[in-house]
Amino acid sequence: MSALAELEARALGEIRGATDLAELKRVEQAFLGKKGELTQQLKQLSSLPKEERPAFGKAVNDCKVSLTKALEARERELKAEELSARLSSEGFDPTEPGSPVPYGTLHPITQITEELVDVFQGLGFSWLDGPEVEFEYYNFDALGIPGDHPARESHDTFWLRDGNVLRTHTSPVQIRAMERFGAPLSVIVPGRCFRNETVDASHEHTFYQMEGLMVGRDISVPHLIYTMKTCLREILRRDIEVRLRPGYFPFVEPGFELDVNCPFCEGEGCKVCKQSGWIEMLPCGMVHPDVLRSGGLDPEEWTGFAFGLGLQRLVMVRYGINDIRDFTGGDLRFLKQFNRI
Ligand SMILES: [Zn+2]
């Protein structure tokens, strides 16, 4: 064994045998330090015959690389041992299972949307989406609300500089759906709508609606009543009565306000229902022939019903919430009550 090989073997043995970082440092100095054994070897280089120098230089260098790697590896091991010794002396056990991280919950509007989608998909409706920035044509004109129509005044509209609007209802998707899919057609369109309203306990500038549209041959008011009763019974989780009152909306003819019997007093009369025993639930009606025409359908051949369900209102009725601002107030105490996970 050459002197160099002997030195390397000895050094590796000492490196592996070092039991702490200070000892390892001493070993490093002893071999690779300025006066270390390997450094001394290099000094012999000039005393060697010229032709032997390159081979010897390379051998010393290889030895140095090998020792450096071994030092680094041992240093990592010793550091890991020290850390684990320190943690266990501080009572930390890395093998103990973690404690649970608190997680959030789906917003009540999201929950009710998912429930509604479930119910309506069971009734054969498809789930559509539509743009929140809408053309004036789809939001108003195609639904029988031209520029001078008084109904526009009840839609406090956010107008954009380019003449488009933030949709004031989900109804524009009725036209888009008929244009795209023709008839027969059954769709629901849950989504966000905007009105330039002063915010108070029952008005929000941003609200959630779900449009429903069914077009087919011989669709009539009983289909509408059946569909609404089925849906509301599922969502309000009780057997309900509904009644229709005449209501005026430009895009339906005839139009109705649909009421449900008050869940709080069972029809006896209370503060929530203003002693009437009924709660106003949603506007609906038979699709106006002009709206069918806007959607490219022949009103002689097709009829349909449509409704617009206010999702905040539905959640409010279901849980007896009396301030619409709670939904966007960001108060976790409010939101946590709807944790269904
Ligand atoms: Zn009541």
Structure, described:
The chain is α+β, with helices and mostly antiparallel strands. The chain has two domains: 3-89; 109-338, BirA Bifunctional Protein, domain 2, CATH 3.30.930. It has helices at 3-17, 21-32, 37-43, 53-89, 108-122, 136-139, 151-154, 172-181, 221-236, 289-294, 311-319, 332-335; strands at 126-127, 133-134, 165-166, 185-194, 206-216, 242-246, 252-261, 278-287, 303-310. Helix 1 packs parallel to helix 4 and helix 2 (21-32) packs antiparallel against helix 4 (53-89). The longest helix has 37 residues, at 53-89. The model has no long low-confidence stretch (mean pLDDT 89). The structure holds zinc ion (ZN). The site of zinc ion has 8 residues, from loops.
Topology:
Elements lengths: L2 H15 L3 H12 L4 H7 L9 H37 L18 H15 L3 E2 L5 E2 L1 H4 L11 H4 L10 E2 L5 H10 L3 E10 L11 E11 L4 H16 L5 E5 L5 E10 L16 E10 L1 H6 L8 E8 H9 L12 H4 L6
Parallel strand pairs: 1-4
Antiparallel strand pairs: 2-3, 4-5, 5-9, 6-7, 7-8, 8-9
Helix pairs in contact: 1-4, 2-4, 5-9, 5-11
The structure holds zinc ion.
Zinc ion binds next to loops.
Instruction: Give unreliable regions as ranges.
Output: none
Overall 3D shape: elongated
Name the structural class. alpha+beta
CATH class of the largest domain: Alpha Beta
Instruction: Output mean pLDDT.
Output: 89
Q: What characterizes the major β-sheet?
A: 7 strands, mixed
- Going by CATH, the architecture of the largest domain would be 2-Layer Sandwich
Any idea how many domains?
A: 2
Hetero compounds: zinc ion
Return Rg in Å: 39 Å
Q: How far do the termini sit from each other? A: 72 Å
